[in-house]
């Protein structure tokens, strides 16, 4: 399976890449929402997107709305991974079509468990 | 007029969680209760993010260069390769970004967070700013300081 | 030399040996920092002047021993831990219990080693979602630690704890931000009451429950005590009720009188224990038995 990691922080992309590669995902990366959309429009077919909120050019929330507006991408699982932790923000993201939401800081366990909730990782896997 | 400030215990909680989540809880962050004056290290790195909107303030991290390099190696999984400034700036910047982002969510919103500014040197705070919260700690024997300032 | 390690090597070895014996977790010598940092608050609470003194206390005081082990055991608490039991609760147990309580329309649950309360509140969330109007439920959360009970009553959890196994939709529905933490909404907190209880001691006045969760706590007790607990908890489980142990816990090696008390049933990926011999309930899994002899033989 393939994961697209979208975050303007190289350190965070590195951390997430290690976690999901360990779960046997192939990974691709983008520094902001537009870059991610460009990759998807060019044929990258991710099963999962891990999306930061605050990024230059196009933020994660806008990215989510764009993906959910396109029927071709209806099977892409969208998980926000962000410091935005106000209740209202989480509600907005879920309403826009994000499937899951991880608040930074997080441990690798947390990512695994969320992916299990989403059915992308087998329930028997331990972090 | 007193500026609104985050609760010290909340700042501690945020820093502890960011630290243990990304740097592991094998080596705990040990609060130092008697620290004062400049950070006790020869070479220091610092990084800051500012918050604007419903609340305005700056969150700053200062840490010894040794600590900055060690945590960069951990966060970027670079064990033996030589580190350059950009590597350290990426790692330390992300750390202050996470701490700042969580502090932002403690304060009245809506607010935005600037990109982190990282420097290979001590932080300096302008005369019209007030420190409203501070945590001094040691990690594997190396000093780190997280502070929150508002404009008085 | 590192700042701050004051613990004597002998104390460290003693504690490391204890933890290894009780939990199989290995603490290597380079982890003195961690051990000291985690034991220090307990030492202060216990009135000890040093961690070394506290370690000596742990050697003779069973309650402090348990606290020390807890503090040194990586905190595995998450919401809906292991998932399968909660799924079995929603899909199988709750419908079955409801089918035979149509007059009383009430479900009682006991979280028998509730720790910080994620188990109790996870069940509360499921009840909120699946219990029809006109039905009520109560959840008793007990623990030997008064500090933990206070946590359950407050219902406050850190950001990091909130990330663990909790669907985001439940996060926003059942919690509100409280400083750097999140707090369970009053409606759910009202479902849960706490009580101090040491499982090795009397259960007098506890009552009877439709579901008893005794997950991942028996490991803290020696074998005779474990058997005693399983014996004494039996009358507190409703005849058609369920007892759930931890996913990796087994009740093999039980003496005959104990296997006579409990039937084992497989509900999906979950093994449940049911009071043996009850005839007034539907059979779920293939391994439901009625006789003590076949219970011992089928083993599961």
**SSE succession of chain A:** EHEHEHEHEH
Strand order of the largest sheet of chain A: 2-1-3-4-5
Could you state the CATH homologous superfamily of chain B? CheC-like
Flag low-confidence runs of chain A: none
Radius of gyration of chain B: 15 Å
Give the number of DSSP strands of chain B: 7
Proper CATH architecture of chain B: 3-Layer(aba) Sandwich
The oligomeric state of the chains shown is heterotrimer
* Helix segment tally of chain B: 3
Q: How much is the average pLDDT of chain A? A: 94
Low-confidence stretches of chain B: none
The name of the CATH topology of chain A is: Rossmann fold
Radius of gyration of chain A: 13 Å
Which CATH C-level class of chain A is it? Alpha Beta
Overall structural domain count of chain B = 1
Question: Helix count of chain A, per DSSP?
Answer: 5
What is the N-to-C succession of helices and strands of chain B?
Answer: HEEEHHEEEE
- Number-wise, the strands of chain A total 5
- State the CATH class of chain B: Alpha Beta
Which range does the strand content of chain B fall in?
25-35%
Features:
heterotrimer; B: 152 residues; alpha+beta; Chemotaxis protein chec; 3 helices; C: 300 residues; alpha/beta; Chemotaxis Receptor Methyltransferase Cher, domain 1; seven-stranded mixed beta sheet; 10 strands; 19% strand; disordered C terminus
Account of the 3D structure:
The complex is a heterotrimer of chains A (127), B (152) and C (300). Chain A is of the alpha/beta class. Chain A has helices at residues 10-21, 33-41, 60-68, 87-96, 108-117; strands at residues 2-6, 26-30, 48-51, 77-82, 100-103. In chain A, strands 2-1-3-4-5 form a 5-stranded parallel sheet, with helices on both faces. In chain A, α3 links the parallel β3 (48-51) and β4. The longest helix of chain B has 20 residues, at 85-104. The mean pLDDT of chain B is 90. Chain C is an alpha/beta fold and 300 residues long. Chain C has helices at 9-23, 32-45, 51-60, 62-72, 84-99, 118-130, 146-154, 159-162, 168-174, 186-189, 223-233, 256-259, 292-298, and strands at residues 106-111, 136-143, 156-158, 175-178, 181-184, 192-196, 209-214, 237-245, 262-267, 270-275. The chains are: A alpha/beta (127), B alpha+beta (152), C alpha/beta (300). The A-B interface holds A 9-12, 14-15, 18, 54, 82-86, 104-107 and B 17-18, 21-22, 75-77, 90-91, 93-94, 97-98, 100-102, 104-105, 109-110, 112-113.
């Amino acid at each position: 399976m393939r994961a697209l990691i979208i975050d303007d922080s190289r350190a965070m992309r590195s951390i997430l890449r290690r976690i999901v590669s360990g779960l046997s995902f192939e990974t691709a990366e983008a520094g902001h929402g537009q870059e991610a959309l460009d990759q998807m429009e060019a044929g990258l077919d991710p099963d999962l997107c891990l999306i930061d909120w605050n990024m230059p050019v196009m933020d994660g929330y806008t990215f989510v709305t764009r993906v959910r507006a396109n029927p071709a991408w209806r099977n892409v699982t969208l998980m926000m991974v962000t410091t935005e932790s106000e209740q209202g923000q989480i509600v907005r993201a879920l309403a826009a079509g994000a499937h899951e939401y991880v608040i930074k800081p997080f441990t690798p366990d947390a990512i695994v468990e969320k992916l299990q909730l989403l059915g992308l990782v087998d329930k028997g896997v331990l972090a | 007029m007193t500026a609104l400030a985050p609760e010290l215990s909340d700042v501690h909680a945020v820093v502890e969680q960011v630290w243990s989540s990304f740097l592991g809880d094998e080596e705990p962050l040990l609060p130092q209760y008697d620290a004062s004056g400049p950070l006790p290290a020869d070479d220091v790195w610092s990084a800051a993010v500012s918050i604007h909107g419903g609340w305005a303030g700056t969150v700053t991290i200062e840490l010894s260069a040794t600590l900055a390099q060690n945590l960069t190696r951990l966060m970027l999984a670079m064990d033996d390769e030589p580190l350059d400034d950009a590597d350290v700036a990426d790692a330390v910047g992300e750390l202050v970004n996470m701490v700042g982002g969580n502090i932002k969510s403690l304060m009245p919103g809506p607010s935005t967070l600037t990109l982190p500014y990282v420097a290979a040197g001590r932080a300096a705070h302008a005369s019209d700013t007030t420190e409203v919260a501070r945590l001094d700690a040691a990690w594997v024997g190396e000093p780190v300081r997280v502070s929150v300032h508002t404009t008085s | 030399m590192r700042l701050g390690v004051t613990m004597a090597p002998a104390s460290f070895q003693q504690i490391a040996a204890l933890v290894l014996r009780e939990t199989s977790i290995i603490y290597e010598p380079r982890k003195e920092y961690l051990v000291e940092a985690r034991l220090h608050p307990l030492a202060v609470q216990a009135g000890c002047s040093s961690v070394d003194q506290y370690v000596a206390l742990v050697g003779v005081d069973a309650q402090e021993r348990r606290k020390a082990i807890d503090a040194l055991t990586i905190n595995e608490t998450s919401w809906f831990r292991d998932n399968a039991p909660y799924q079995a609760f929603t899909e199988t147990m709750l419908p079955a219990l409801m089918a035979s309580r149509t007059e009383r329309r009430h479900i009682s649950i006991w979280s028998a080693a509730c720790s910080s309360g994620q188990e109790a509140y996870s069940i509360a969330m499921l009840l909120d979602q699946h219990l029809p109007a006109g039905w009520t439920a109560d959840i008793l959360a007990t623990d030997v630690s008064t500090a933990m009970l206070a946590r359950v009553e407050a219902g406050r959890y850190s950001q990091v704890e909130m990330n663990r196994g909790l669907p985001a939709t439940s996060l926003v529905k059942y919690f509100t931000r409280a400083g750097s933490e999140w707090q369970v909404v009053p409606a759910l907190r009202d479902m849960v009451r706490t009580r101090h209880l040491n499982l090795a001691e009397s259960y007098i006045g506890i009552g009877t429950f439709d579901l008893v969760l005794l997950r991942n706590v028996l490991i803290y007790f020696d074998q005779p005590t474990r058997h005693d607990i399983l014996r004494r908890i039996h009358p507190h489980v409703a005849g058609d009720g369920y007892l759930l142990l931890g996913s990796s816990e087994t009740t093999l090696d039980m003496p005959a009188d104990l296997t006579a008390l409990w039937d084992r049933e497989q509900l999906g990926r979950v093994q449940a224990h049911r009071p043996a011999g009850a005839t007034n309930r539907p059979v779920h899994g293939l391994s439901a038995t009625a006789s003590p002899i076949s219970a011992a033989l089928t083993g599961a």
